[in-house]
Design goal:
The protein has about 450 residues and is α/β, with parallel strands linked by helices. The chain has 2 domains: about 260 residues, Type I PLP-dependent aspartate aminotransferase-like (Major domain) (Aspartate Aminotransferase, domain 2, 3-Layer(aba) Sandwich); about 80 residues, Alpha-Beta Complex (Aspartate Aminotransferase, domain 1), CATH 3.90.1150.10. About 35% of the residues lie in helices and about 15% in strands. The chain contains 13 helices and 15 strands. Strand 2 and strand 3 form a beta hairpin. The protein starts with 13 loop residues before the first helix and ends with a helix. It binds pyridoxal-5'-phosphate (PLP). Pyridoxal-5'-phosphate (PLP) binds next to helix 5.
Length: about 450
Amino acid sequence: MTKSINLVTEVPGPKSRELEAMKNQYVPRAMSIHAPVYVERAEGALLEDVDGNTFIDLAGGVGVMNVGHSQPEIVEAIKEHVERFTHTDFTVVPYDSYVKLAERLAKILPGDTPKKVAFFNSGAEAVENAVKIAKAYTKKSGIITFENAFHGRTMMAMTLTSKVKPYKQGFGPFASNVYRIPYAYCYRCPLNLEYPSCDIKCADELKEAFLHTVAPEDTAAVIVEPVQGEGGFIVPPKEYLKRLQEIAHENDVLLIVDEVQTGFARTGYMFASEYSDIEPDIIVLAKSIAAGMPLSGVAGKAHVMDGPGDSGIGGTYVGNPVACTASLKVIDIIEREQLVDRSKELGKRAYDRFKAMQEKYDIIGDVRGLGSMVGIELVKDRQTKEPAAQETNRILKKAFEKGVISLKAGIYGNVIRVLSPLTITEEQLDEALDVIEEAIKEVLNEK
Ligand SMILES: Cc1ncc(COP(=O)(O)O)c(C=O)c1O
């Protein structure tokens, strides 16, 4: 088997260390770096740094590169577009890539209700706008969110987010009329029940919130991730979202599904809402929508999306023409290369491998995932489930030094997650998982 990892210097190498010193001097410390090797080029699931080291990328720019780095057709389409024009502001002088992308997405998003789509730049910006649209349509202001949720770092998105450190501490006061209920985190059930005998009682917490916390008459929407991402790759039971939506709709409240991390084939579905068999009222899209070009979107039932009036949503850069062109290519590639099926196959391969590791290493408390959104939760003790956060950091650092870039997640910072490009080869995935296993073994031996 030809190995993909190729380390020719220590990690990080001298050129990366020099750039890191410059970064430390001129960039605020909040922009802390996870893998301090400065990238020179990237292709497929491989990254080459400025010192000539090659890494396997299980982070994919945090779930952005589902179609792989530097996909040649996308690079071509971007180049061709940049030579024609880069910006006009869609609402000043429009362009075709925006409307073509809106049409394309409207046709492939879950459900039969006619859809409309608006584009923005980041996931957080799309979340802000999804909430504005829900408020304008319902003429109500309350928003219900979840424990372990992550929706971004701008004011409303940060308010909706659950993890206090580092995302919220010191940044208050937050947006008002936001209420939080537990999520279906089965490994650490908030109600101390077991699936399936629990009959997903946690979904009824929404009903309880309407009694104890905020009236449905004052609530515009519930916003939920179909699989929680930053919160720890938490996959709820299949029926959970449907039940939430039923309760929301019985109370004239909208369901916003944040598919920023789960969208574009990541979970073995084009959108994870399909797994839950629901048609959300509003869907938030970003990350893998445009292969690294800054683009996000809010899509939804047309009558809901028409809630805000003339110029109520928008912005100078929203729906950049080059990014929209890249996104059209992303969808072509996902369809042509059948990345939805590929996501299921690769996800199963990673899941099975992690399950085998779980047999050997007690530190792996839980293995979970949907499609290629796979993670392991590390614990000091399987009975108490005490999170093994420091060990998680050490494992990721060792894996990095051995040539694998992978990320953590979880409210306790004890989940290792796989978000590799879906174009990763089986050999590359196996090689990366070998490295993670080696790192786990080494950390366990250090104890
Ligand atoms: C589910 C979810 N929503 C929103 C965001 C925020 O997206 P962005 O970082 O592009 O603002 C993220 C980012 O990780 C996310 O995972």
